[in-house]
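Side project, low priority. Logging it here so it doesn't get lost.
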Amino acid sequence: MRLGVSLPLVIAMLVALQPAIYAQSPLPAGAVVLVDQDRFGSHLAICAQTGARTVRQGARTIAPTAVWVGEGEVFHKLNAGAGACDPAWSPDGRRLAVTAAEGLWIFPSQSSVGNLRVESRLPIGESSEFTYRAFSHPKWSPDGALVGLVVTNGGTSWIEVFEASSGRLFYTSPPATTSFNWGNTARDLKVGDLDVHLPAHP
């Protein structure tokens, strides 16, 4: 008996095995070059360069990027201000974390209007001429209660963790740290080579 597989079935199997290729849909209007992206089910969030000029704020350089969210070829741009990038879906797909020049934004999945949950401004009394605070690479805890991110001030980097609902600072790592990952629970954090056991949160 001859066994055969139809061409449409082969194509469907390749698409299922290579979601990253499938995710490369056409860029929305206003997006010039793809920077990064995150997918939850059929929802795709992308960060892309806009073609505008780079902005200088004291010692800080802000890239001309923005974030769009959509399905298929229908996208809407998020109102996160200058330098918006690094979109990250919450574990349940109901919220999206985005970092921008102003700080950490949290958006409902179906809305272009979000909440500036944490401002990236310097502590009172510090000069912004030679230093700054910039956020990047947000990651949700497994239960969606916390968001960790990388903070840079022009001289070093470290990790900060915030409550997603309130923006309250929950943890700060030692300096000279550029990477982190969540463990199986919201109490387990891998910061560089350091295993951190966070306290229980409300």
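Brief comment: The helical segments are 7-17, 19-22.
Revisit when time allows.
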